[in-house]
Amino acid sequence: MPKILPNVQNALLEEAKRQISQNGYRDTTIRSVAKACGLAVGTVYNYFPSKDVLIATFMAQEWLECLKRVKTYPEHSSFEVLESLYNVLTEFSARHKSLFCDESAHKVFATVFSQRHKQLRAQLAQFILPMCKNKENSEFLAEFIAESLLSWTVSGQSFENQYAIIKNLL
Fold first, then answer.
1. Which of 10, 49, 64, 109 is most buried as measured by Cβ atoms within 10 A of its Cβ?
2. What is the helix (H) or strand (E) element at residue 29, kind and residue range?
3. Is the same domain home to 45 and 120?
4. Is 128 within the bounds of a domain?
5. What's the CA gap between 72 and 159, in Å, rounded?
6. Is residue 170 within 8 Å of 78, Cβ to Cβ?
7. Per-residue pLDDT tens digits for 58-89
8. Does residue 58 form part of some domain?
9. For residue 49, what is the enclosing H or E element?
10. Structural domain span for residue 30
11. SS (H, E, C) 75-137
């Protein structure tokens, strides 16, 4: 049975984040992460079966923290709810820009992008749906607005300018 050391998983995740940010996807390896943490490569595999799982783990953890933060925001106007979602998306995107803009990472993750995109849109739509309750096709509208938020974030659009376009839908 493999020896499990305390706090090793967190150290590996933090080191992987650091290396991805500084070196990019291609130059971050299980070996480089293990070496930086003073561990044998086999020890890393006790925690993560691949570099991609290591990366997916820290990104998922950070995204879940973002969602948790959004859930704690007081619900006020539709503007404030949508702006908080936009800000969380913008912050998350900026934090992982080096990974999102990396061609090597795109090639590896392209196959799962569509599925993850649908999940992300659905998660955002859950926050938006209460604003659309009294509208016809409320679920579609919530998904449409969620997709708009994603698009605005990726394209670097100003939230205020884009909100002016959809506020009449709410």
1. 109
2. none
3. no
4. yes
5. 21
6. yes
7. 989 999 998 888 888 776 778 888 988 999 99
8. no
9. none
10. 8-49
11. CCCHHHHHHHHHHHHHHHHHHCHHHHCCHHHHHHHHHHHHHHHHHHHHHHHHHHHHHHCCCCC
CB 16 within 8 A of CB 55: yes
| The two structure tokens encoding residue 86 | 């936009």
Q: Which two tokens stand for residue 59?
A: 């990104």
Q: How many residues does the chain have?
A: 170
pLDDT at position 136, please? 85
DSSP string, 21-36: HHHHHHH--HHHHHHH
* CATH code of the domain covering residue 20: 1.10.10.60
Q: Judge contact between 93 and 151, C-beta under 8 A.
A: no
The type of residue at 59 is M
Taking the whole predicted model, whether its pTM rises above 0.85 is answered as no
Tell me the C-alpha distance between 18 and 147, whole Å. 30
pLDDT digit string (tens) for 147-169?
Answer: 999 998 888 888 888 888 888 88
Instruction: Classify residue 66: in a domain, yes or no.
Output: no
Same domain, 82 and 154: yes
The helix-helix angle for 51-72 and 78-95 (nearest 10°) equals 160
